[in-house]
Amino acid sequence: MSRLLIATVFLACSVVSAQDSKQFVLAANRAGVVELLDPISLQTVSRIHIDLPPNSVGLNGVSANADGSMIYVEGPIADDPNGCCSLYSIDLATLRMNQTASIAGSDSAIRRDLRIKGMSNDRLHVSPDGHWVFGVRNFPGPALDVYDLVQGTMVRQLMPTGLEGHWLASGAWSGDHFYFYVSRNGGSSARLWMVLPSTNDLGDGVAVDPVAHVPGCPPHSFALEEVAVTGNDLFVYEAFGFIGDRRIECSNLIPGGAWLVDSSNGHLLHHVAPDLHFSVLIPDREDPVLYGLSSGGPNWEFPVKLVRIDARNGEVLQTRTLDTDCWNISVAPLRLAPRGDVQVIQTRESSP
Predict the structure, then answer these.
(1) Can you give the pLDDT at residue 3?
(2) By CB count within 10 A, which of 7, 194, 223, 311 is most buried?
(3) Residue 99 and residue 207 share a domain
(4) Number of structural domains in the chain
(5) Gap between the Cα atoms of 44 and 36, Å rounded
(6) Domain boundaries, position 236
(7) SS3 sequence, 188-228?
(8) What confidence tens digit (pLDDT) does each residue in 232-267 have?
(9) Residue 347 has what pLDDT?
(10) Residue 330 lies in a domain
(11) Which parts of the chain sit beneath pLDDT 50?
């Protein structure tokens, strides 16, 4: 498609919203489509199309910059479409798409915008006040790296002690503290810590009731457990739709959903949406709401469900069925929002 035609599509179909930012659910699939969804109805406001090379790795992540004028997607490496991933930016005013930098992998947008040094193997979590980044690491064992954005350096590393066997870590911010959660291979046990930026020693933490322990699974199987926080409520869930999805190997039905956890004693309080097998569960930025993406089968071979959940009582408020594909979602405020179906203008230049 010529640039002239692309510009015509943009002018005809992408009326820009009011200048005040509005929250959207961003959803990207491997086929090269980014959808901007209304956070209440989950209906599509805009569908942004990206031409990808045949048989490429597709889109593997989507997020937005701080001022809501640009979205980021993680897509194929420019010179190796089978390689994952490079970070690309899409200017929502012009729909121009550029490779932003040769930064690959999860959290690449955070690394670029905040110029994080090191912690290349960590999953990054920025504190609500923008002062700290906590990096959750799993190799060679669970660890929490504490990075001071004001000083521009990592100030300490916290490591749990007394963990035997293979454990995996996850975490999320809740106000001024961070929930650091580790679970043992197979879901037989887990521990939880509430960590402040000033914490120097993790201590023993709190033992959490088993969330994902299911009889009938082979010894080598592992449960990939994740956490989501809205307000002061902590939810733990097993993530599905990835390599090692236990629905393939376990003889018994693997329960889905998420558990509300009492962070003071580790007890499970309430099971939310047990019929849904979430690949990700993320909080709304303003309301006590969770957005969940339920993978359509272990290999994403069935239609995918996007749900909006009231975190106070676990009620599923809204459900939207997405096309059969592998999807990623995020929640972000945007200042500009194209309307209808639009096509990006792709360039080869990299922005600084």
Answers:
(1) 36
(2) 223
(3) no
(4) 2
(5) 6
(6) 123-325
(7) CCEEEEEECCCCCCCCCCEEECCCCCCCCCCCCCCCCEEEE
(8) 899 999 999 988 788 888 866 788 999 999 999 999
(9) 76
(10) no
(11) 1-18
- In a shared domain, residues 226 and 294: yes
Dihedral of the CA atoms 129, 135, 136, 141 (nearest 10)? -150
The secondary element (H helix, E strand) that includes residue 164 is none
Give the list of residues 6+ apart from residue 224 with CB closer than 8 angstroms, or none: 168, 238, 239, 242, 244
CA angle 211, 212, 216 (to 5 degrees): 140
- 308 in any annotated domain: yes
Q: What is the pTM of this model?
A: 0.89
Residues 36 and 86 in one domain: yes
Give the span between the Cα atoms of 316 and 276, in whole angstroms: 11
Q: Looking at the DSSP assignment, which residues form a beta bridge with residue 193?
A: 180
Q: How distant, in Å, are the alpha carbons of 32, 206, 272, 346 from that of 261?
A: 37, 11, 11, 45
Whether residue 332 lies inside any domain: the answer is no
The verdict on 108 and 35 lying in the same domain is yes
Task: Please tell me the predicted confidence (pLDDT) of residue 342.
Answer: 96
Find where tokens 């980044």 sit: 133
CATH number at residue 304: 2.130.10.10
Domain CATH code at residue 16: 2.40.128
Take residue 246 and report the two structure tokens written for it.
């236990």
C-alpha separations of 273 from 73, 121, 294, 307, 319 in Å: 29, 32, 10, 10, 12
Q: Which residues are 62's β-sheet partners?
A: 73
Closest by CA position to 15, among listed 93, 73, 96, 97: 93
Q: Which of 81, 85, 75, 21 is nearest to 48 (CA)?
A: 75
Same domain, 74 and 170: no
